[in-house]
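Ticket reopened. Same input as before:
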Amino acid sequence: MSSEELIRQDDVTIRFAGDSGDGMQLTGTQFTATTAQVGNDLATFPDFPAEIRAPAGTRAGVSGFQIHFSSRDIYTPGDDPSVLVAMNPAALITNYKDLKPGGIILVNTGAFTEADLKKAELDSNPLTDGTLAGYRVVEEDINQRTMEALADMDLSKKDKLRCKNFYTLGMVYWLYSRPLEPTLNWLKEKFKNKPELAEANIRALKAGYNHGELLRLFQGHYEVPKVEDAPKGTYRNIMGNQALAIGLVAGAKLAGLKAFLGSYPITPATDILQHMALLKNYDVVTCQMEDEIAGICTAIGASFAGRLGMTTTSGPGLALKTEAAGLAVITELPLVIVDVQRGGPSTGLPTKVEQSDLMQALFGRNGEAPIPVVACATPSDAFECAVEACRIAVQYMTPVLLLSDNYIANGAEPWLLPDIDSLEPFPVEFTTDPEGFSPYKRDEKLARNWAKPGTPGLEHRIGGLEKDAVTGNVSYDPENHQKMTEIRQAKIMGIRESIPTPAVHGPESGDLLVVAWGSTMGATRAAVERLQKEGASIAHLHLRHIWPLPKGLDDIFRNYKRIVVPEMNMGQLARLLQGEYPDARFEKFNKVMGKPFRARELKAHFAEILEEK
Amino acid sequence: MSEVQQLKAKDFKSDQEVRWCPGCGDYSILSGIQNTMADLGIPRENFVVVSGIGCSSRFPYYMATYGMHGIHGRANAIATGVKVANPDLSVWVITGDGDGLSIGGNHMIHSLRRNVDLKIVLFNNEIYGLTKGQYSPTTPEGTRTKTSPYGSLDHPFNPIQLALGAGATFVARTMDVNPKHMKAVLKEAALHKGAAFVEVWQNCVIFNDGAYKDWTEKAVRDERTVNLVAGEKMIFGKDKDKGLRTDGCHIEICSAEDASVWDPTVASPGPAFLMSQLDNDPDMPRPMGVLRSVSKPTLDEQVWDQINDVKGKKGEGSLKDLLYTPDVWEVK
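Engineering reply: fixed in the latest deploy. New output:
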């Protein structure tokens, strides 16, 4: 062990920042996987540009990955990093201001030539002009060190230099006393067929680690002990899109059906399609279709044929699927529509986070076309919500909109895996008896019966035209349309009977209730808990089911003097709640900067409200 | 099903009143498809008829099979979902020149390129009927319609060429006023394994009456069209005395005995393209019958082959395998 001091820290946030081509996302995910296995709680926030490779070295091309890890339970990827790894001047200048005062900045001086500074639009070198006063700057020519470590290897200079992210990772592993094994194993597997690249990266990683110790660049190093009171069980590190994909497949299995995903690539939802395409041995069909509309339409066709149809997209794609979603409403076929929200309108901010598709999810269709909406809060919650969306879809014969967002999609956290036996099946029973069959015959939930093609004697036609409530034939009858519209609405509202009233986190009554949904959950929970510790009368209500809203909310709302709704949009949930609960007053707190709320800014806002009382 | 009952055309008629205009060409296509289906030896419950929007797309309601009346242009996409989800079904797409070539053009070309085993029947009346008379992507240039009162400026699609260009494995053409020919073509389409594209010349009595009369009326039909039959000489004319001769680049009219033999099974779509060019020559007969019929793996069978292949290699995945991957760790 090093003679240098080993200092205990309980809570650390590191940000890796570099050029899009520097491999910072990979560095970040490797650090995450290792940290999860060490037993820390963690949350991550990858932040990358929409361009795959913006001009090298420019500010536009900076890609970042933030990880918050801790010896205790945490909810967010951290407000302010305590360590910044900056691979070039652009990464340094666009990120250093977020750092905590006195924080460590590890700089790759190998990328600080005059030309590099110019690309970052810098007139002077921030390493020498006093910009970084107040921070602990650790300078290291990582390019040079990596080349030295790989000097005797028969690789091109370019290939050698590409290993610099693993050299950097090695240094940070040493700084935070992380084991190398998980990454070593990953490299061996990843480069199974290119052993020379595996070897080069392994050498770079080890060299970085050893140099951290030998070169005494840091004034010491740290340990972040594992979470001691973590619930017992089996854990897995999970990203939101991955959890959602697994949840959709699990949901189909619990329904006793085969999953059928019709989709089209779109940031930030593509990973779900990619992940499900790997799961073919779970009887998953994935069809990458010619466009968003074909994606949802194949899923509708598959549901008609007796599979569980699904489609995944982001905001602009959801807009394209609108008409087909209405077809699923009127044909009353089960369907899960996933919208991984990003900044809008139009193409907007494709790689940034926003919660601004809520109104589109609720109302973005022609006609009276109610669709239940479920929203996930965290990567692991995405699994549960996906299963829940499948349950609602098959039990109520309806399309379901499942909202995620870019922050959940690409964020990671340790996931305490559920016991398989605890996952309650909701098997579908197809209608097979021709006796008295009608396609719109309903059960007590108002769900129509589901007869799939291939079943003798149950041949029937469904479609976009209004149908007679009894015979299922096309009907233009005014009373019938009124009746069918009301039935479709009542069916969706009836879902309330199957969902619990959410629990309030904090006192049952008090000065302030914070109502949040989706990924705002983490920062809200952290801010509310901090204020609770300071003695404030504040509680947090998280909504998973956005439509229909669970029963009992009015009883909760009336117990607080004020209610605030923080959202990454201009107040869409607040508007919905105001309409549904006119007796309460919902104050908005909004942010549309493409970045999630920080716990600190929420805390400051809530504190301000509490002071006004 | 142990034994397939011999079905009749009437077994495919639903109890719904057919509501096309009197004299509409759709009636004969409905009857042609019902007759064809009855002959296929497929149980009725295994048929699914999917349509988009338009006059032709009311079709599923008149069939006693499973069916879905979809949304405008999307029948091919919906049908792809049905067929891939359950390849045991016989899935038919009913569409029109507006539905299938304009708003649904994208889905049309992609379902053809993927060779999904669909029977696609495109009713081409060269007009938008249900919206009461606007020009469609197959309306000839210069046609006066409600949205082209001074004559249409658009260059039209030739549906046969579009299908060939999209890589269709089966391309054919028939007409509403020749039920015998239609049934023969539909039967070949039904027996083809893969995407089968059938253009049906269909007369709209209200908004585009007589669009095909110069080729389809009994008095001129034999002179103005040539029926392409695999392995037979390309002969036409009232007295079957004329033929078509081709050197692969050109086509010319010749005597019946000098006519070339038609082969829709050649690997290249070139000959079929060449034949489709006859549509543009007023002095030549227009081709009917099967222009192309080649074999290729279908998407629906490949999807399940791949799934079974992966299952064979990795084993069938359970819920436990799905969640508990090798990278888990225990907290005790």
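The CA atoms of residues 122 and 282 of chain B lie 24 Å apart. The longest helix of chain B spans residues 299-314. Please confirm and we'll close it.
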